[in-house]
Amino acid sequence: MARYADSIAQLSFNTSKDGKPGESKKMARLLIVDDEKSICQVLEIAFRKAGHVVETVTSGRLAMTKIESQVYDVIVADIRMPDLTGIDLLHHARASRSPAAFILITAVPTMPTAIQALNLGAYRYVIKTDKLVEEIKLVVDRALEEMALHEENARLRREMLRVFAQGNIVGRSEKIKAILEMVRSVAPTNSTVLITGESGTGKELVARAIHEASQRREKAFVSINCGAFPETLLESELFGYLKGAFTGADTNRKGIIESASGGTLFLDEIGETSPGMQVKLLRVLQERMVRPLGGTHDVPVDVRLIASTNRDLKAMVTDGRFREDFFYRVSVIPIHVPPLRERRDDIEPLARHFLKKYSLEMGKPLNDFAPVALSALMHYNWPGNVRELENAVEHAVAVSGNRDGHVGSEHLPAALQGTAPAGEDTLLFPKEGVEFETEVARVERRYLVEALRQAGGVRARAADLLHMSYRSFRHYAKKHGV
Questions:
Q1: Helices (runs of H) and strands (runs of E) counted in the chain
Q2: In 10 A of CB 79, how many CB atoms?
Q3: Which candidate, 192, 194, 290, 282, places its Cα nearest to that of 236?
Q4: Stated pTM of the model
Q5: Which pLDDT belongs to residue 426?
Q6: CATH-assigned architecture of domain 167-338
Q7: What is the pLDDT of residues 82-124, one digit of tens each?
Q8: Whole-angstrom distance, CA of residue 86 vs CA of residue 41
């Protein structure tokens, strides 16, 4: 133990005024395994002073029992021990699915052993020297920092899923899944994102999802439609102005970019900006500064830019209508949201999402679509994309009654009337497959509801329409809660 005593004395640990160990950045649970008691003692003293919970054992078999019954953040184990080697213990820890970072130490290093340890998933391989305590402490601190980062990423993924579950983004198609995966990947970064797609596809929802899954989520998400303002007014809105900067500027006003500092700025329809405005926005991205109209000093800003457009910016660059340098600056990460007609697997979940939303808002107990109504929705081309689908469902809920809890095809807007093929026998089968029993049950329920509707609620007549006995009808009605 004396060999490492100086190392402990030299370390600067976080201790409180009364001499008790203070809290480290992350209080962790450590297991120290070494057949040399002095090594266990010196490491236990060091890590307890750093505020960690430490257990020590001098036997590989005792360590194996500990690993099976306890959860550790870090395990530090000697490679050479009389009963089990550190490599054996590493094997056992991985087989037991222990989440601990595994650090191996040895006084007799060999290259094959080091390679084997790392290949088996050891976090680090440390050689015993007079500086062992300092080196182990640095390695443990780094391991805990990386674990904290992984936990934060996992938390962000859970937060993103929570946001999506609230209905911000609805869909089950492979294309939507790919967009969600891209959102998950780019959200933690500060890179600019360009979201492209036709009007009504949900580009702003994607932008909001990126913001909500990012570290900026506690700050503002500020959105502005660049096509909704004349250039002079857009400039004053974005950059702000000082009193007297122009006629009517009676007070100082902070611009949208400065208001979004620390958060996310969403520039919708960025293809509508003039070349002059593009130059000014490019300067903001490059220098992280804004200058209010009438001002003489720059104001620093920390803002992430997400832009969207329904225009072909590359073609506009070729035609000289969009600056090439600005295009490459805003399109570091491109995300394309395809039109609804190219992801028909999303129509049904979107329609049901909007049905639930508007039936609650309007106080109507509607819970499904009649088969013909759903078929009409599925076969319509949706030139207005998700926005048009939402409007159609809102219309249907508004004009429908609530006698049988479903929306019929007669409740849909006129443009959708008759879009379902007569005598349709085409099966709408999503690429990712279906839950067969769930889908069959859903179809059965729809037929029961539609038969009841056409029979005026008379069960015996509904059973006749379905060519089944009254007893069978009662069985299926009970099974599906009709």
A1: 19, 16
A2: 25
A3: 290
A4: 0.56
A5: 44
A6: 3-Layer(aba) Sandwich (3.40)
A7: 888 888 888 888 887 788 889 998 887 777 777 877 777 888 8
A8: 18
